[in-house]
Amino acid sequence: MYMTFVSAGLMLIALTTLMLELTLIRVFDVIWTSNLAYMVITCAMFCIGLAGVISTIKPISTDSRPNRILAFWSIFYGISALSILPILNGLSKLSANIFTHPIQGILYSFCIYSILAVPFFSAGMIFSVVFSAFSEKIQSLYFWDLTGAALGCIVLIPILPLIGPGGILFLAFGFCLIAAACFIGRKTWLLLSLGLTAALVSIPILNYPKYIDFKEHSAKRSLLTWKERGRIEKTVWDPISKIDVIDITIKKWIAYDGGTQTSYIYPFDGNHAAIRQGMPEGADRHFWERMVLISHFLKRDSNQRVLVIGSAGGQETRAALMYGAGHIDAIELVDTVVRLGKETYARYAGYIFNDPRVNAQTGEGRSYLRTVQTPYDIIQIFSNHTSSSIAAGNGALESNYLQTAEAYKDYFDHLSPNGILHINHHIYPRIVTTAARGWKMSGRTDFQHHVAVYEAPGVQDNLPTILIKMSPWTSEELEEANRFFHGNRVLVEHPLAPEKSFLSAEFYSGEMSEELLDRIPFRIDPPTDDRPYFGFLRKHAHPLHPDPKSFLNLSTAMLLNAQLTANGIPMDWIHLFVTGAASILFSIVFLFVPLLFSQVGRSPWSGKGYTLAYFSCLGAGFILIELMFIQLFMKVIGYPLYTYAAVVFSLLAGAGSGSYLSGRIGVQPDNRWHIPFWGIITWGLVLLTMHDTFFRLLLAEPTWLRIGISFLLILPLGFFMGMPFPLGILAIRNRHPGTIAWVWAMNGFFTVIGGLISVLLAIRVGYQWTLLLALTVYAVAALLFVRLQQKEPIGGK
C-alpha cells in the first residue's frame, strides 16, 4: 500500500517539475527575452542533477522508509516554488542597470539563479531518494515519473489562461503538499493537503480575470510606461504569448510577450470608401504605414484572393477589404488575438474580422496553406514569427519556419500566375537568398526580374518591403508602386535595372559561392526547414559598418550593432556562452566531486567509467531525440505549441509505458536486454527515413488527425526509450550506496547539456544528422551496457 502512495507522490513531483519549468520559460519570455529564458532555466535545471551529487556524497540509509525525508523536501519544494513570484517581483527594480553596473548585475544574476535553483534542487533530491531507496521497483517508479512529466507538459495549455503563471505557482505548492502527504502515507494528511490545495488554487481563480502576475524586468517598447499610467485594458496569458491590450488614445496596442512583438487595432467606422479616398497620404493615420497597403493597391478591385499570415490587429485584412478583395483568409497563431478582433474589439475595429469575405481563424500559416487548393493573388506576411520559446520548441535560437527556402516554395506554389508575395521583415538580403533558393526548388528561373525591394532612405529600416511577383515586373507596375510610395520608400532592388540594385545577381541564383558567403560579414546562407534559424546572423562580436562591397547595408549593420551592449557583449549570443560555461563548471562538479568526496567515488570497482558513461548516454540521447522530433513534427502538426505538447507527451507517455511493461515482457539485465536498443535504433531510423513520406500523406488532413497519427508514430519509439534507464538501475542496484544517486545525477546533467549540444549540432549539420547522432548515442549505450552486467555486488552495502 505504501508503494502506491510513493508512486502517486513521485508522479505529482514530476508533473509539478515540468509544469514549473514550462511556466518559468513563459515568464522569462515576457520579463526578458526567449534566449535569456533558455539560459536561466537551463542553468537552473542543472540543480536537479546536483541533488544526485549531494546524495552520492551522503547517501541515505535504505534500511527504513525515507518518508520524512521525502515529505520535508516536498514541502520545501512547494514553499520555494511559491516564493519565486514575490522575489522576482522584488528584483525587478534592480534589472535596469545590470549591464552598466557590474556589481549590481552580478548580485541580480546570483539572486535570480538562486531562487530558481532551489525548487529544482528539491525536486532532484526527491527523485534521487526515491530511486535509491526503492531501486527494486524502478520499472514501476520510472513509469510514474514519466507519466507525471507527460501530464505536466500538457496541463499548462488549459490552466495558464485561467490562473496565469502566479496561479500556477499556487497550484505547484498545492501539488507538493499532496505529494508530501503521499510520502507520509497517511490518509488523514492526504485529505488535509487536498483541502489546502483547493483553498490555494481558489485564490487565483477568484481573482480572475485579473492575474497574480510577474513584473516586467526589461522595458520593451515602453510597455512599463503605459502600465504605470494605468492604460492596460486587458491582459491574457495565452499559452503561446502573453497578450496586453493598451489604450494609447488614437489606437489600441497589442503587445505580445511584454512588448517583444507588437500590433495595433485602429479605430474604424466601417466606411472603406471614405478611407480609401484619402490614400496613400492618409495611410499613417489608419495603418502602420504605406508599406502595409502596396500589394493590395497593385491588385485593387480585381476580386483578389488574399492570405494574411499573422493577421494580428487586422490592418492587413482591412487594407485588403478597402481595395476590393473578394476573399481573405486571415490566419493568426495566438487564439486570444483572434478573439479580440472578432469579439472584444470587433466594434472598435469596424467588424473587419466579421465581414463575410473574411475567414479569420487561429492557425499556423504554412500548415493552413498546405490545405488550400485555390491559389491566392496576394500572400502577405508582415514581420510575423512567434516570440514564444515553448512554441518555437527551443529558446536557444528562435526557429522561424516562415522564413526558410521550403516556406518560400510553399508560397510560390500557392500563388496565381500574376500573384504577389508581400513580405515585411528585417534583413532583406537574407530574405532574397532564401526566396531565391525556394524559387529554384520550384523549378523556376530568372528570379531577379520578379523581385522588387523598397526601403526607407538613409535610415535604419527593420521592415523593408519585399514584393515578389510570379510574373516579371513591368515598368508600368514599378512606376505605379513608386508613385504610391512617393519617396516614403525607395527602390533598392530594381528588377528591371539590376545594375541599380544593392545586391549582385548571385543573390538571386539560389546557389551562393563559398567565396561570397565568406566575404559577407553576417550569415546570408538560406535557412531551411532542417536549419530554420533565420535570425542567427552574427559571425563575430565586433561592431559592423555599412559596406556595399561586402553587401552589408545600413539596416543590417545597425540591427546587429543594437544587440551589442556598451561593453561589447552580444546579447544574441550570451545565452550560449553562459550555458556553455555553466556546462563546463557543472561537468567538473558532477564528475569529480563524487570521485573525491564520496565513498562510491573513492572506492575502486570494476566498470565505474562504463556505468557513468552509460547513464550519460541515456540522458543525452533522450533529449536529443525529443528536441529534434519537436522540430521535425512541426512540419506536419503545424501549430508550434501543439507540436511541442504532442511530441513531449508522446515520448514521455510511451517511455513510461515501456518502463512499466519491460519487466512483464522479460526485459532484465540478464535477459532480453537488447530489445529496447534494437527497438530505438530500428524505429528511429524508420522515422528518420520515412517521415517526409508520412508527412506528405497527412498535410491535408484535419489538425486532430495529424496530432493523433503523430502520437502513434512517436509512441513506439518512446516505448523502447523508457526501458534502458530502469534496466541500468537494476544492473547496478547492489553496488555501493550512492551509486544510483550518482548515475541519476549524470543522467540529469547530460539531459540538460544535451539540449545545448542539440542547438550547436542543429546549427552546424541540421536536424536530421543530429537525430542520426542521437540514435548512434543509443548504440554506444548498448555496447556500454555489456560492461554493466556483473551480478555480484562490488564493495558491499
TrEMBL record:
Keyword Transmembrane helix: yes
Keywords (A to Z) from UniProt: Membrane, Transmembrane, Transmembrane helix
SUPFAM superfamilies listed in its UniProt record: S-adenosyl-L-methionine-dependent methyltransferases
InterPro entries the record matches: SAM-dependent_MTases_sf
Recorded superkingdom: Bacteria
Transmembrane segments: 36-57, 69-87, 107-134, 141-160, 166-184, 189-208, 573-597, 609-633, 639-661, 673-691, 703-729, 741-763, 769-788
The name this protein goes by in its record: Spermidine synthase
